[in-house]
TrEMBL record:
<dbReference type="InterPro" id="IPR052178">
    <property type="entry name" value="Sec_Metab_Biosynth_SDR"/>
</dbReference>
<keyword id="KW-0560">Oxidoreductase</keyword>
<dbReference type="InterPro" id="IPR002347">
    <property type="entry name" value="SDR_fam"/>
</dbReference>
<dbReference type="InterPro" id="IPR036291">
    <property type="entry name" value="NAD(P)-bd_dom_sf"/>
</dbReference>
<comment type="similarity">
    <text>Belongs to the short-chain dehydrogenases/reductases (SDR) family.</text>
</comment>
<keyword id="KW-0521">NADP</keyword>
<protein>
    <submittedName>
        <fullName>SDR family oxidoreductase</fullName>
    </submittedName>
</protein>
<dbReference type="Pfam" id="PF13561">
    <property type="entry name" value="adh_short_C2"/>
</dbReference>
Length: 261
């Protein structure tokens, strides 16, 4: 009889999660570690990374790295080379949340957002491509990018108290670009046995938000509610697992149906 370990076990595998201390990043990292992967938690705040590693257990390691800095990403790659010589799962989840609108957006905002979403993925792949290729000898290495429903549809202004309270236009623009870059990478890396897929989360506002806003967001989904962070974990685990070995170039939308109407 096939077990969950047979389906989704990641023992002996190595994973990296960028943006690991964020709300969704923590859930993704926890899922990979629980499945048995040695998981490197990547972010810019060493203290928060260490606290998360302590919380998630001995298979997790704090790895301070600013993914917009070439030297930091190169050092992360060198560390993975020295520690394991392979990389099985790369989750690119780095994100800086802030509100905004066309009225206050600046060209420099678009450049910074693009560097964090698109430039950082290029840096990470440059630093780890040979590690992913090494893992393909006995596994099905997986790169998972994290986009947003606002890379598929535009925010509805009436949901927010003011124009600057919603997600800014440069956020959605680069998330849409990340979906397309995922497809490009899947085509180029496929012959090496490396899969590249995207997860597009919907409304996952977390606890402690404005109840009125949460209610308005919930009404935008056929399911009539916002998402719980844990509901992203199984999608990431599926894409990380070798059991999804014939899935590449896909954009899996986990949004409670937000984008279907």
């Amino acid at each position: 009889m096939m077990t969950l370990e047979d389906l989704f076990g990641l023992r002996g595998r190595v994973a990296v999660v960028t943006g690991a201390t964020g709300r969704l990043g923590q859930v993704m990292a926890e899922a990979l570690a629980a499945a048995g992967a040695t998981t490197y938690l990547v972010g810019r705040d060493q203290g928060r990374l260490e606290a998360l590693a302590d919380k998630l257990g001995p298979s997790c390691h704090a790895a301070r790295c600013d993914v917009t800095v070439d030297e930091d990403v190169a050092a992360l790659g060198a560390r993975l080379h020295e520690d394991h010589g392979r990389l099985d799962v790369l989750v690119h989840n780095a994100h800086v949340g802030q509100g905004g609108s066309l009225r206050n957006a600046k060209p420099s905002d678009y450049l910074a957002a693009a560097d964090l979403a698109l430039g950082a993925l290029q840096r990470l792949l440059d630093a780890t491509r040979d590690l992913l290729e090494a893992a393909s000898s006995d596994s099905s290495p997986s790169v998972i990018t994290v986009a947003s429903m606002y890379g598929v549809v535009s925010p509805k202004p009436h949901l927010y108290d003011n124009p600057e309270a919603g997600n800014p236009p440069y956020y959605g623009a680069v998330k849409a670009g990340l979906v397309q870059l995922t497809r490009y990478a899947a085509v180029e890396l496929g012959p090496a046995g490396i899969r590249v897929n995207c997860v597009t989360p919907g409304p996952f506002p977390g606890d402690g938000g404005d109840p009125a806003l949460l209610a308005r967001l919930a009404q935008q989904t056929p399911m009539g509610r916002v998402g719980d962070s844990a509901e992203i974990a199984t999608t990431v685990l599926y894409l990380a697992s070798p059991r999804s070995s014939y899935t590449t170039g896909a954009n899996i939308v986990v949004d409670g149906g937000w984008t279907i109407w």
